[in-house]
Prior knowledge:
Layout: E1 2-5, H1 11-19, E2 23-26, H2 31-38, E3 43-46, H3 54-60, E4 67-70, H4 80-85, E5 89-92, H5 98-114, H6 116-124, E6 143-147, H7 151-162, E7 166-170, H8 189-195, E8 198-201, H9 213-217, E9 223-227, H10 236-245, E10 248-253, H11 264-267, E11 272-274, H12 283-299
Helix pairs in contact: 1-12, 2-3, 5-7
Amino acid sequence: MKILVTDGMDKTALQQLRDMGHEVTEQFYAPEELGAALKDFDAVVVRSKTKVRQAHIDEALKGNLKLIIRGGVGVDNIDVAYAREHGIEVRNTPAASSRSVAELALGHMLSCARFLSVAGNTMRNGLWEKKAYGKGIELGGKTLGIIGYGRIGQCLGQMASAIGMTVLAYGAHHEPGTAAKDGTPYVSMEELLQSADFISVHAPAADGPIINAETIAKMKDGVVIINTSRGANLDEAALLEALNSGKVRAAGLDVFAAEPTANTELLNHPHVSCTPHIGAATGEAQARIGQEIVSIIAGFGK
Length: 302
């Protein structure tokens, strides 16, 4: 097959594809150029930067495109139903990056609890504000509420349990009072919001923000909010207001409503720990993603 890789891919996996006889092109296309480019390929591999929308698919139908692969978990940057309606298969690599994203979420939890981000910045500016940042909290003994208890949520839950946290889960398709395979109890959204000291979001993009003014109002005072899922799941204006009022103690953010984000007021808030959408950006995760992509292509059409 002729394969287009738009957003980068593990080098070992790229070589494997070429050794299998596929013609692989690595090139990013601007949105207005992508559709025309897709006509020349049988498959395209994207990550989060490239968006494959209906107009691109319409152009691609003039050529030979048969397969779209998202190297990662979510496929909200692809018009999946429209592609499949027109005979183009869409696949992703849901398992490969779970641990990397979960570890980043845990890292943000620790950063929020102990002021790691802001304290480090002040030291680099020549300050020694031991008193200001000497009022941290421990994760052990606290309750972590996880919204969306799929692969990533479960991985984070296991890590949190190991350091002594109580874990509660909310799943849109799971009844409160039941338990996940690892024994974590499913609760209602209401109970999770009211009970959790830390809340971490691992749900797919919803129709509207999951974390908004209404849900924040139901949370404990001093709650810590972590979002490594999708920027659309969190109302940034409502979060900023809650940070300023003290309702929310701190927030750890890897994803934003618009990326790259221009929300400098949020980024510069002293109680925000932030990263530029790097949840899956570890060497181990990228190698696993590459191997999943190779397996998908090797088995395609068989």
